[in-house]
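Table 4 source record.
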Amino acid sequence: MTMHDFTGKIGRAILPLLEEFPYVLGYIGRTVSSSFAFVRREKAARKILIMQLLFTFIEALPIAVVLSAALGSAIFIIGYQFLLSLGQAALVYKILLVVVVQEFGPVLVAFIVTARSATAIATELGTMVTSHQVESYVSIGVDPIDYLVAPRFLGVTLSVMLLGLYFSFCGILGPYVVAKLINPTIASGYFTGLLGDFSLRMAFASILKCMIFGMVISIIATYYGFNVERSSTEIPVAGIQAVSKSFVGIIVSDVLVVAVSLIF
């Protein structure tokens, strides 16, 4: 393959993305603006928000709690023994907070929500498109963004933030409970050491990441759900794209947040 063919192939791959970018940007702006006005929506839209919170937050809560407690306990027990042999046992609290609260916790919560909800949202909206339900809303003067996208956007964003808080809490409390049962000596002074390394900046970074991840997941899932055109065979493709693109969006946004935090 010559350099001309290679650059041409790259150009043909990038050009559709550039053509789609203004539409995507407008979709994001319309979704965000509609979400700010959501308090004035009727009961039907609020019911969608409640159902989205039920599915994305309440039903995913047991998974997040178990994973956070297991992850935090493994990091603390294994890390404490290893660092103790090096004479640096106090560092385990810093590592636990950075991994569970600030870095890995929000990403893992976002992955859980993506796996459970991104496919469901894209599939549901795609089905509504192929069955002409979206056209019916438009025909009677109901904006699909206001009625279908905004409650899901708010529901997923709030769910990721709440799951992130529970993940951090259980990831911190779990190691103490396990250490108390295995070796009470290790558990002594646990919260004192933890509070010594905890900072509001760390908590703010965790909440900010969860909020951004929730926005990314909901926007991508609803966008690909509406991208279904006429055939029902496009629905599973939209679900797959919603999940894969959400994973990429989560990783990219996480890198950007970390980069900005290092600069400021």
